């Protein structure tokens, strides 16, 4: 539902006509239909009317927003809690200018224990698997890998992929260094391995004291039975486990909770989150939400809690550095979302107060580092403005690169940098088709045409500076493609290597200039250009390799009679990809559902002809 504003704003009451007195979400839109602000309310009419009340003192940010409002769209919900969660989802998807915005589009890493007869303990990021059990979330990949390494020393569960596990004929290095018990070659029976699995689960669930008691009792029983070697092995495990706990345990804590603190400085905000699961600290992660001017830390924390936990697992307890706005509503909405009671606490003492102070200190350190790096980045932007004779520092820069192997599977990349650095959500890649293999000029022209046709449709903003990885030829091809589209960018720059191809000797080619511009190797502008060019190169090579590998994999299997899409998918899934399939023997392939012995032999022969090459 939407309500149009008067053009002259003389009667704000006209804006409120038709808005019900129900809970829901409202969206403020400008004259072009762009969402300015998303908010929620228990009573939509009363809340929206408050923006136009002469008795209410509005800060400068809200005054500016109200002056831009041309339309209001509303969505009615059953409860205020539903409205809070809908508001959070809309803020993340619409990115309104006047809201606190959390940039957090990466899934959090977990530890996955698979459901195999000999379960695998491994790193997992992404959608929840259909089988197995997840532990976490962890703040970063490093924390997961450190935990896995520590667990391997105490409980030697396998971490190898299923294809490797199924096809081993002798123990690997992990067995030799006592990080795996060797289930792949039958060096441990299923019952003993299952016992280590149970102990690992207890540790990851935070039941380590119970686990240590069990190991102590088992050690004493082994010693009483004169099994001194077994007793010594258990003694070493107990000691290793205690060392792990000393590094990871939060003193006096049990269960799951997160501790959060927000600090502000230099117009920036940082929220640090410490994850505690099963009484163990999994580490701290810093977030830098985009915060409108004059937003206090309690408002930042409230917006962060709603947006972050609407898309992530919510522990039973959240400890925050200060009271937050609408705490009761947040507890209700997050509890409904999580399916269990959620409590938000700000007044804590003793050990929790010390841990909260540590989280705040982490936030301060992270914010200082960010401000320092942003100051350096701002210096490079200003240096680039001077080097390219621009009126203002560029707010958006794009860079294109082409990658192929002797003309095979050509891919073009487009990376985007804004005023804060790489904007990876805006990266794009283009599979180039219908050109002479190896014709980089034609590939560049096709990529430019496809990209800027979309820009003309309004799918992305125009860049202030467009970099092309290449010399005058690539630059002219890009310029011709833009001219064909009827576009002319103010600043188009080709970046080529110097005569000796050493880093720091790059040449900049500008349209209309015969000679290249050569900046000093220590120029901040040159460092920024190199960073952008290298990122485009990395992204292009990665995309090309993925496309080439997929094409080669598909072409080999598609060339075999009797292998359709379902059987091909089943084979690759069974062996964990093409590499595992190549390693498999005929009998292993024949063991896959729908694959006969004769067809398995054909697959084996085709794969090994391909691997051998001409």
TrEMBL record:
<dbReference type="InterPro" id="IPR001943">
    <property type="entry name" value="UVR_dom"/>
</dbReference>
<comment type="subunit">
    <text>Interacts with UvrB in an incision complex.</text>
</comment>
<keyword id="KW-0227">DNA damage</keyword>
<dbReference type="InterPro" id="IPR000305">
    <property type="entry name" value="GIY-YIG_endonuc"/>
</dbReference>
<comment type="similarity">
    <text>Belongs to the UvrC family.</text>
</comment>
<feature type="domain" description="UvrC family homology region profile">
    <location>
        <begin position="259"/>
        <end position="478"/>
    </location>
</feature>
<dbReference type="InterPro" id="IPR035901">
    <property type="entry name" value="GIY-YIG_endonuc_sf"/>
</dbReference>
<keyword id="KW-0175">Coiled coil</keyword>
<keyword id="KW-0267">Excision nuclease</keyword>
<dbReference type="InterPro" id="IPR001162">
    <property type="entry name" value="UvrC_RNase_H_dom"/>
</dbReference>
<feature type="domain" description="UVR">
    <location>
        <begin position="209"/>
        <end position="244"/>
    </location>
</feature>
<keyword id="KW-0963">Cytoplasm</keyword>
<dbReference type="InterPro" id="IPR010994">
    <property type="entry name" value="RuvA_2-like"/>
</dbReference>
<dbReference type="Pfam" id="PF14520">
    <property type="entry name" value="HHH_5"/>
</dbReference>
<keyword id="KW-0742">SOS response</keyword>
<dbReference type="InterPro" id="IPR038476">
    <property type="entry name" value="UvrC_RNase_H_dom_sf"/>
</dbReference>
<protein>
    <recommendedName>
        <fullName>UvrABC system protein C</fullName>
    </recommendedName>
</protein>
<dbReference type="Pfam" id="PF22920">
    <property type="entry name" value="UvrC_RNaseH"/>
</dbReference>
<dbReference type="InterPro" id="IPR050066">
    <property type="entry name" value="UvrABC_protein_C"/>
</dbReference>
<dbReference type="InterPro" id="IPR003583">
    <property type="entry name" value="Hlx-hairpin-Hlx_DNA-bd_motif"/>
</dbReference>
<dbReference type="Pfam" id="PF02151">
    <property type="entry name" value="UVR"/>
</dbReference>
<keyword id="KW-0228">DNA excision</keyword>
<keyword id="KW-0234">DNA repair</keyword>
<feature type="coiled-coil region">
    <location>
        <begin position="212"/>
        <end position="251"/>
    </location>
</feature>
<dbReference type="InterPro" id="IPR004791">
    <property type="entry name" value="UvrC"/>
</dbReference>
<dbReference type="InterPro" id="IPR036876">
    <property type="entry name" value="UVR_dom_sf"/>
</dbReference>
<feature type="domain" description="GIY-YIG">
    <location>
        <begin position="21"/>
        <end position="100"/>
    </location>
</feature>
<dbReference type="Pfam" id="PF08459">
    <property type="entry name" value="UvrC_RNaseH_dom"/>
</dbReference>
<dbReference type="InterPro" id="IPR047296">
    <property type="entry name" value="GIY-YIG_UvrC_Cho"/>
</dbReference>
<dbReference type="Pfam" id="PF01541">
    <property type="entry name" value="GIY-YIG"/>
</dbReference>
<comment type="function">
    <text>The UvrABC repair system catalyzes the recognition and processing of DNA lesions. UvrC both incises the 5' and 3' sides of the lesion. The N-terminal half is responsible for the 3' incision and the C-terminal half is responsible for the 5' incision.</text>
</comment>
């Amino acid at each position: 539902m939407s309500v149009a504003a008067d053009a002259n704003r003389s009667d704000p009451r006209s804006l409120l006509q038709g808005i019900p007195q129900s809970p829901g979400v409202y969206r403020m839109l400008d004259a072009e239909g762009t969402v300015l602000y998303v908010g929620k309310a228990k009573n939509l009419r009363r809340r929206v009317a408050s923006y136009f009340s002469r008795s209410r003192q509005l800060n400068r940010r809200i005054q500016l927003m109200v002056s831009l409002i041309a339309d209001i769209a509303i969505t009615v919900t059953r409860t205020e809690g539903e409205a809070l969660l809908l508001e959070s989802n809309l803020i993340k998807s619409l990115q309104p200018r006047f809201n606190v915005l959390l940039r957090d589009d990466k899934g959090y890493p977990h530890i996955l224990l698979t459901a195999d007869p000999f379960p695998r303990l491994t790193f997992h990021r992404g959608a929840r698997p259909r089988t197995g059990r997840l532990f976490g979330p962890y703040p970063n990949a490093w924390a997961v890998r450190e935990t896995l390494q520590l667990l391997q020393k105490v409980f030697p569960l396998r971490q190898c992929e299923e294809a490797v596990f199924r096809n081993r004929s002798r123990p690997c290095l992990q067995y030799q260094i006592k990080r795996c018990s060797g289930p792949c070659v039958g060096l441990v029976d299923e019952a003993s391995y299952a016992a280590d699995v149970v102990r690992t689960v207890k540790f990851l669930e935070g039941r380590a004291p119970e686990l240590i008691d069990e190991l102590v009792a088992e050690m004493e029983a082994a010693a009483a039975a004169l099994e001194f070697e077994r007793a010594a092995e258990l003694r070493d495990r107990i000691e290793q486990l205690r060392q792990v706990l000393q590094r990871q345990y939060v003193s006096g804590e049990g269960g799951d909770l997160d501790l959060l603190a927000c600090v502000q400085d230099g117009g920036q905000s940082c929220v640090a989150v410490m994850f505690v699961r099963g009484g163990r600290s999994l580490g701290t992660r810093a977030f830098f939400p985009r915060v409108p001017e004059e937003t206090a830390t309690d408002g930042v924390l409230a917006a962060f809690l709603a947006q972050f936990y609407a898309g992530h697992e919510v522990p039973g307890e959240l400890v925050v550095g200060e009271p937050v706005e609408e705490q009761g509503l947040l507890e209700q909405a997050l509890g409904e979302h999580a399916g269990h009671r959620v409590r938000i606490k700000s007044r804590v003492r003793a050990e929790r107060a010390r841990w909260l102070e540590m989280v705040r200190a982490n936030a301060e350190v992270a914010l200082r580092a960010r401000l320092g790096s942003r100051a350096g980045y701002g210096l490079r932007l200003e240096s680039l403005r001077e080097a390219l004779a621009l009126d203002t520092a560029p707010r958006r820069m794009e860079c294109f690169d082409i990658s192929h192997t002797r003309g095979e599977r050509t891919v073009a990349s487009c990376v985007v940098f804004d005023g804060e650095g790489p904007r990876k959500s805006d990266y794009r890649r283009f599979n180039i088709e219908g050109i002479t293999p190896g014709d980089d000029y034609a590939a560049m022209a096709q990529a430019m045409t496809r990209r800027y046709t979309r820009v003309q449709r309004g799918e992305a903003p125009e860049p202030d500076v467009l970099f092309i990885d290449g010399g005058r030829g690539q630059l002219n091809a890009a310029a011709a493609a833009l001219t064909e589209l009827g576009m002319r960018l103010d600043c188009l720059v080709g970046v080529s290597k110097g005569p000796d191809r050493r880093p720091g000797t790059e040449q900049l080619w500008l349209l209309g200039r015969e000679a290249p511009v050569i900046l000093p190797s220590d120029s901040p502008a040159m460092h920024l250009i190199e960073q952008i060019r290298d990122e485009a190169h990395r992204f292009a090579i990665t995309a090309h390799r993925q496309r080439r590998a997929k094409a080669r994999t598909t072409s080999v299997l598609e060339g075999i009679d009797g292998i359709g899409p379902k059987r091909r998918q089943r084979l690759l899934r069974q062996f964990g990809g093409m590499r595992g399939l190549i390693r498999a023997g005929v009998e292993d392939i024949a063991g896959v559902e729908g694959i006969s012995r004769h067809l398995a032999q054909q697959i084996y022969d085709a794969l090994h002809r391909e691997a051998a090459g001409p």
